[in-house]
Amino acid sequence: MKIPLLILFFSYLDVLHSQNIILNGDFEYFTKCPKGLNNEEKSKITPFVTNPNQGSFDFIHNCDDDKFPRFFWGSQEPYSGEGFAGVSVFINSTNQTDGVREYIQLELKDSLVKGSVYRFEMYLSLADKWNIAINNLGVYFSNEFLLLKTDGVIPVKPDIISPEFFSNKSDWDKYLGDYIAKGGEKYIIIGNFNEKKDVQIKIIDTGPTTDNYVYYFIDNVSLILNTNLSEGITLNNINFKTGSAELLTSSNIELNKIVAVLETNVKYKVEIIGHTDNVGNKIENIKLSKARANQVAKYLIEKGISAKRISSTGFGSKYPTGDNSTFEGRAKNRRVELKFNVTEN
Q1: For the chain, which end, N or C, has fewer CB atoms within 10 Å of the first or last residue's CB respectively?
Q2: Does the pLDDT at position 240 exceed 80?
Q3: Is the pLDDT of residue 263 over 50?
Q4: What structural domains and CATH numbers belong to the chain?
Q5: E strands of the chain, at which residues?
Q6: Using CA atoms, how far apart are residues 141 and 295, in angstroms rounded to an integer?
Q7: DSSP secondary structure string for all residues of 108-175
């Protein structure tokens, strides 16, 4: 009796990635070796992995020794397994246009549950050939499959954003972020969602920087339900007026997700913790971090969450997660952290 290949694949996923709900996020499953295929054909042989616009990602596998894209952009071995992907997220061109933007769209095994918290993770390696990197790479969660008739910037606001410049060429760096589901999300899209004028560039090697690409190899993309919320989660899109505790309205979407977590999980209490970078007076930074945490608490209470379930504090620059000597490290340190605990009643 023959067992369909697709069923075998799902069994493989369940055994090796029982918690990861992204299908083929390690790029190990494909319909044929990409050897000899052109660039557009290569992106069509990876089930559950697609192009959300008219750009095209690259599928790379150890069975293929063709020069492009693996060795043209720069040699790299997979983070694990035999396959990985590559995507051009930006070109620093003298041309006024933004150029072609490439993204990767991955399908989820199950739709996300409203109010649940998920931990996103992937590994990135910058291609050897290029001399610049960018920050603010994003991940967008979508209820619908996207197929846009454009090769430009996808006009959405990403749900996870990293302030880091991923500039490691010799090895792989981990990209990590937490996401609170709105409910029903079935796809994720990875890439650069910033317009050219908003892109920040970091020079990492000597050599030309104009007409220079930012091309990343990507591997081991995963999304796992976070059941240990007491360790704390950090959300990207809670923003304040510079030097102030005044919440920007752009924060409302993220704050409403916190409301959904607390409404969905009625036994949860939340501790809101503010953090700053080390720029400025240490005592003033502590005051600012506390004031920002208090503003988040106030927003939740105004949305109907009992004040008995909420506490807030701030530590200023005492607990950095990034290097305060760098721009991206300081940006990473300016954050609001949430810790959820189960109440006794």
Answers
A1: N
A2: yes
A3: yes
A4: 5-225 (2.60.120.260), 229-342 (3.30.1330.60)
A5: 49-50, 58-61, 83-92, 104-107, 117-126, 132-134, 138-142, 160-161, 173-180, 187-191, 201-203, 212-225, 233-235, 268-275, 310-314, 335-342
A6: 27
A7: BSSPPPTT-EEEEEEEEEE-TT--EEE---EEEEESS----S-SS---S--SEE-------SSS-EEE
